[in-house]
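[step 3/7] inverse_fold.run input=structure_tokens len=437
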């Protein structure tokens, strides 16, 4: 077995209890060589994430409001973890340095990154691993662009000299020496970058759920976990709102063909979800997952001989571009076409858009249906299986759900249906049950 890179998210490193679970996981698997950690997250529903508190310190300073009380909360949390774990990672001294830097006007990225920095110091000490600062291996240009090759070179220069290491996620360093963070949730990206650079056999991403579920548990009772899913299928599901992993974390692992295993720190016995480059043939899994979003508008266009009209789509796309709107879907018939738009993009401009469509496209009829929900049924196994769409549409018909739009990607990996928002939950349940093996 090759090297494993394991990233632990905020809730997995929120306090000494969670860090104890992390140690058990890491000690049980000698292949885990590099551990990437987030800042401490929430310990309970109403709790604060350390990163949020750090941002709050900066906002207070910018508005010239005393920040010391918030800093004290951060101070207390870190020193309590250190004491609870019974170690001395020099956290008091570190916090003193950070406070001095803040007083001197440290940047927002520097301040925000300190949650990961301090947590990695503590966890490295607790595990007896080396601490490797992300600023020494994750590099950005002076303008903040992530530098892939420089980062790979730095990783391969620094990491071989340590046996096992804990590395803070979320940030790196610009060439000018200043700290730069990724976007929120960015420790996932750090893990993926390191996994690729060291050619890891697997990138384990430890969180507080046992992987992806086939449907939203707030809608479907006790949905089955997804055992394995390809990057492409996952992209479809994430686009529709299913999220566990930072989107940008997929790319580095995907190009290097490194599987990502989503695992649950609180239930390490669960296998979690394996995300792989190629879909794994699983005869039991026709549909990998179902995800959906509300808040769309469908504009249906009918025009006699539309099929023979040149430049129609270009003119339609031009109207959307002029209004700064991206088209979500464009299912077409012979003389009909539906444009599916995100309400957030329309942003109160629906009447103007419809007027422009009337005058520039001269349709025979134009029908607007607002409050549409889109539901994607995703599964690499669907292409090979006959009758998938019949099962899906049959299930919706049986529940009396009116389908306002259908779009099937050319890969046959997904079927997207548009239904009225009031039917959203019923439709998801019906599809889930129709494919539940
Ligand atoms: N701590 C950072 C955040 O809360 C990054 C991360 O946890 O991935 O966004």
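[step 3/7] decode complete -> sequence:
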């Amino acid at each position: 077995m090759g090297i494993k890179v394991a990233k632990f998210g905020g809730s997995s490193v929120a306090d000494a209890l969670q860090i104890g679970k992390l140690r058990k996981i890491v000690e049980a698997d000698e292949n885990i060589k590099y551990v990437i950690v987030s800042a401490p997250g929430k310990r309970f529903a109403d709790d604060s994430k350390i990163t949020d508190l750090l941002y709050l310190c900066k906002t207070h300073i910018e508005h010239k409001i005393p920040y010391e009380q918030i800093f004290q909360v951060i101070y207390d949390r870190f020193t309590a973890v250190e004491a609870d774990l019974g170690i001395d990672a020099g956290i008091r001294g570190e916090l003193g340095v950070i406070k001095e830097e803040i007083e001197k006007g440290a940047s927002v990225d520097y301040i925000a990154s300190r949650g990961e920095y301090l947590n990695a110091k503590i966890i490295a000490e607790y595990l007896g691993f080396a601490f490797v600062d992300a600023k020494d291996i994750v590099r950005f240009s002076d303008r903040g662009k992530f530098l892939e090759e420089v980062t790979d070179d730095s990783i391969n220069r620094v990491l071989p000299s340590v046996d096992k290491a804990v590395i803070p996620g979320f940030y790196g360093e610009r060439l000018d020496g200043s700290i730069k963070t990724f976007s929120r949730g960015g420790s996932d990206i750090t893990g993926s970058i390191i996994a690729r650079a060291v050619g890891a056999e697997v990138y384990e991403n430890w969180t507080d759920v046992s992987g992806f579920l086939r449907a939203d548990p707030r809608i479907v009772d006790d949905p089955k976990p997804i055992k394995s899913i390809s990057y492409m299928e996952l992209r479809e599901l994430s686009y529709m709102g299913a999220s566990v992993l930072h989107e940008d974390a997929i790319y580095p692992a995907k190009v290097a063909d490194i599987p990502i295993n989503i695992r649950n720190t609180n239930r390490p016995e669960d296998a979690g979800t394996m995300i792989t480059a190629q879909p794994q043939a699983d005869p039991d899994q026709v549909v990998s997952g179902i995800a959906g979003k509300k808040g769309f508008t469908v504009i249906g266009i009918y025009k006699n001989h539309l099929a023979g009209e040149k430049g129609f789509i270009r003119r339609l796309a031009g109207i959307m571009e002029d209004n700064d709107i991206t088209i979500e879907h464009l299912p077409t018939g012979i003389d009909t076409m539906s444009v599916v738009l995100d309400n957030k993009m329309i942003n109160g401009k629906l009447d103007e858009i419809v007027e422009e469509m009337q005058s520039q496209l001269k349709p025979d009829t134009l029908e607007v249906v607002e409050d549409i929900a889109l539901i994607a049924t995703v599964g690499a196994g669907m292409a090979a299986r006959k009758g998938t769409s019949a099962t899906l549409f049959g299930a919706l018909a049986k529940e009396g759900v009116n389908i306002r739009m259908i779009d099937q990607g050319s890969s046959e990996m997904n079927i997207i249906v548009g239904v009225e928002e009031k039917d959203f939950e019923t439709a998801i349940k019906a599809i889930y049950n129709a494919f539940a093996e």
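[step 4/7] annotate
The chain has a mean pLDDT of 94.
Residues 108-127 form the longest helix (20 residues).
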